[in-house]
Amino acid sequence: MLDSAEALIDELVPEGLDWERLVRSYPIPALVLAAAGGFLLGRSRGPQVLSALSGYASAEIGKNVSQFMGRD
Q1: DSSP letter at 31?
Q2: Of 54, 51, 72, nearest to 63 (Cα)?
Q3: E strands, 1-72, where?
Q4: pLDDT at 71
Q5: What does the radius of gyration of the chain's CA atoms come to, in whole angstroms?
Q6: How far apart are the C-alpha atoms of 7 and 9, rounded to whole Å?
Q7: What sign results for the dihedral spanned by CA atoms 29, 5, 43, 59?
Q8: Residue 13 DSSP symbol
Q9: 43 HSE (CA, 13 A, CB side)
Q10: Which residues of 23-37 are buried (b: 16+ CB within 10 A; e: fewer)?
Q11: Mean model confidence pLDDT for the chain
């Protein structure tokens, strides 16, 4: 999941921007920006985000339970 988040961020930011270095250099402003973005996204698209996350979580749980039970 972390790789897909990094790929999404790489796709959204301009090509020459080294966002990973900026986050390491300025962690508090990066955290505040992420929190504000999450708040605004939640206010405008909350039900859709919750639906997508719950669908993803249930698929991952089902996959892990199947692997645990030996049914790939």
Answers
A1: H
A2: 72
A3: none
A4: 67
A5: 16
A6: 5
A7: negative
A8: S
A9: 6
A10: eeeeeeeeeeeeeee
A11: 85
For the chain, the residue count is 72
Torsion of CA 59, 60, 63, 68, to 10 degrees: -140
The full set of domain ranges for the chain reads 2-69
Answer yes or no: is pLDDT of 59 > 70: yes
Which pTM was predicted? Answer: 0.55
Distance CA 32, CA 51 (A): 25
- Give per-residue pLDDT as tens, 18-53: 888 999 999 999 999 999 988 998 889 888 888 888
The pLDDT value recorded for residue 1 is 56
Biggest alpha carbon–alpha carbon distance for the chain: 46
